[in-house]
């Protein structure tokens, strides 16, 4: 970089950082927390569903780095145990809970585990989910119901189960001291829900429902200082964007192939055409969006759907 370019870069950063020095650390890492940085979630208790792998695991690790105490939940007991154990090995606090978020007993069991381990719930993230694609004229009732169950009914049930620990606790705080602790709920949606997507009528409908649920919770619980936001992710490098069939999930005894035809090659080609940043996102970057909305810096953000897409759909 020549001297004039350095000066121009320095002027640019002086507007956003108050410094006239050019910076070379433009490659940001979602997990970079300096020793002098104040943890954003110190002492907070967070439940993250589907956090045994992918962006859920990335979020659990990032939240732990910022001082949160984690309830790691996943359908795969080994994956949940592995993430929780990793957090504890680094000095953090975490428990694991295996279970199917669509099971009727799961929400109460999850809330109970959080309260028994940590005493409360400050952050609830409904992240668990999967895709079961098909064109509209071929989607079966089982495919349709499965998407609504995991993406709409499961988050609704968990929010409802958490009400005594979040809403009612806040109500008591307001009565006793006139101020409620800040709490938040984050529901994971998708650009399929905000823009639609061919071959995903069931998934798109369910993820659109997540947005409606989010806005309603924000309206109903806002007076208790409980924020609720959604994140609509675009292409993120997880098993849902890997090669079709490279990973499977069992739904009612039936094996469902996850992923997309062509996998990473297809995702990269789509990124080149549709995403201004010219790449797909990483799980760490997806986790960063969750941290943003869970942090004190988002204290006046509620009822919103944040699209994390690398600039797609603008």
TrEMBL record:
Residues 44-224 form the Ketoreductase domain. Pfam families: adh_short_C2 (PF13561). It comes from the Eukaryota. Gene3D superfamilies: NAD(P)-binding Rossmann-like Domain (3.40.50.720). The keyword Iron-sulfur does not apply. Keywords: Oxidoreductase. Belongs to the short-chain dehydrogenases/reductases (SDR) family. This is Ketoreductase domain-containing protein. It comes from Coccomyxa subellipsoidea. The lineage of its organism: Eukaryota, Viridiplantae, Chlorophyta, core chlorophytes, Trebouxiophyceae.
